[in-house]
Design brief:
It is elongated and about 70 Å long. The strands form 3 sheets. Strands 3-2-1-6-5-4 form a 6-stranded antiparallel β-sheet, sandwiched between helices. It is an alpha+beta fold and 456 residues long. A hairpin with a 5-residue loop joins β12 and β13. The chain is built from 11 helices and 16 strands. It has 2 domains: 156 residues, GAF domain (Beta-Lactamase, 2-Layer Sandwich); 233 residues, Phosphatase 2c, domain 1 (4-Layer Sandwich).
Length: 456
């Protein structure tokens, strides 16, 4: 890491030269509402800035918040240890005001010759040779600042580096939105504590914000998911799932379960989703994705008893003698093993080793390969399924064998129908009063109709 640098607030240009967007009252109100100005470093932002520097190979990276006077460095990588007063420069001395004005990325390959920035004082004061940054936004869409990578020499930024910065910007935007949602919800829940139904609605709203509003379905596949809150849904718990593309023909599916409940569980869930999304596109290794998540959880000093189990699957299209299908790799971290229902009704358990995340520096993660041919279906689920039990009999759990039999009996059902059938069966078993959240995600290759199970 470079030695600490004292950054002068001397203005090269006058404040009157700043674009009008910097002074927009709605934008400034959104900046102040974050509470990030003049606040100390936090692991969640430092982790993302470190990732920006690591992916791009740049010696410096920043997460900034820009008001009408200065660009405040909420996270700064590469300038050593800085006090609060040193973590800033004047708005006109920063490239960030150009991002605010454009509400879009700024990619500079040679700062000394780029007419957009070569008269900005930080080019010489901070030795900027190249700069690449993306805007971070408030929930209302206003530009709050940037995440940027900075090199001391001119350089080109490749497409993968630029895409990663865009992903990290979205992750920071989500973190800020979650914080504001949590603060707003805390105030509302204090006001509405006496009204149980309203409190339940607020809790469910926060839980829903941690899940994709619409499940993106890979081309040529069926996909469906369900989240069933425990009890009456009055608590925010930590089950989550996600499904998203990581390349032209590659996809990532993840399903996890955070121990505990409430705001702390929601924060861990959000960190997990954004970390997986930021890292999954970098390599075809779910074990590495979960290892990166483990590192992020430990770096954020997750509170005692707040850990995470997860299964991560990365897969791509493939052709076989049977026709179209998928081939993939999965990794589990202290999580129930996924099940595959073959087209002939046979059910297979796909095992890989791995410890819970957020506790041990090395989660000892393994991986397992699998192939889905036409008619095959992959089921990811949380332990709320197998541990479901009637309210008056905690020992009579739904269990793994009953789940395997239920999946085998999903003859002729597509992914959505299978999820609905499993959900209804489990809820009926526990009298619609589950003790733990339930999450399900099914991927199925359409084609050959599913055969009847052997015992049918």
């Amino acid at each position: 890491m470079a030695a600490a640098v004292t950054v002068s607030m001397t203005r090269f240009k006058g404040a009157g030269d700043l674009p009008a967007q910097v002074f927009d009252p709605a934008r400034l109100a959104a900046v102040y509402a974050t509470g990030l100005l003049d606040s100390g470093p936090e692991a969640v932002f430092d982790d993302l800035a470190h990732l920006a520097a690591s992916v791009t190979g740049a010696p410096m990276a920043f997460v900034t918040v820009v008001d009408d006077r200065r660009s405040y460095w909420k996270s700064v990588i590469g300038l050593g240890e800085l006090g609060i007063a040193e973590r800033q420069n004047a708005a006109e001395a920063s490239f960030c005001h150009l991002v605010v004005a454009a509400d879009g990325p700024l990619i500079v390959t040679d700062a000394a010759t780029d007419a957009r920035v070569n008269d900005i004082s930080s080019v010489t004061r901070m030795g900027i040779g190249a700069w690449a940054g993306y805007p971070i936004h408030a929930p209302g869409g206003q530009v709050l600042g940037t995440i940027c990578a900075v090199d001391t020499a001119p350089r080109a930024w490749n497409d993968q580096e630029v895409r990663t910065l865009a992903t990290l910007a979205r992750a920071i935007t989500g973190e800020i939105a979650l914080r504001q949602a949590v603060r707003q919800m805390s105030v509302q829940m204090d006001d509405l504590r006496a009204t149980s139904r309203q409190s339940q609605a607020l809790a469910r709203s926060l839980q829903d914000s941690l899940l994709p509003p619409v499940l993106t379905i890979p081309p040529g596949l069926e996909a469906a998911a369900a989240y069933l809150p425990a009890g009456h849904g009055a608590l925010v718990l930590g089950d989550f799932y996600d499904l998203f593309p990581v390349g032209p023909s590659s996809w990532c599916a993840v399903l996890g379960d955070v121990a505990g409940h409430g705001v702390e569980a929601a924060k861990v869930t959000a960190l997990a989703r954004y970390t997986v999304r930021a890292d999954a596109s970098r390599h075809f290794s779910p074990a590495q994705v979960l290892a990166q998540l483990n590192t992020a959880l430990i770096a954020q000093h997750v509170i005692d008893q707040q850990f995470l189990t997860a299964v991560c699957v990365i897969f791509r299209d493939q052709k076989s003698a049977e026709g179209a299908g998928v081939t993939g790799v999965l990794s589990t971290a202290g999580h129930p093993s996924p099940l595959i229902r073959r087209a002939d009704g046979q059910v297979e358990e796909i095992r890989s080793k791995g410890a819970i995340l957020g506790v041990f520096p090395d989660a000892d993660l393994g991986s397992a390969r699998f192939t889905l041919n036409p008619g095959d279906a992959l089921l990811l689920y949380s332990d709320g399924v197998t541990e479901a039990h009637p309210p008056q009999d905690g020992a009579a759990m739904f269990g793994e064998q009953r789940l395997a039999d239920l999946l085998a009996a999903c003859h002729g059902l597509d992914a959505a129908q299978a999820v609905e059938h499993i959900s209804h069966t489990v809820l009926d078993f526990c009298c619609h009063d589950s003790a733990d959240d339930i999450a399900l995600l099914v991927l199925r290759v359409p084609g050959a109709p599913s055969a009847l199970p052997p015992h049918a």
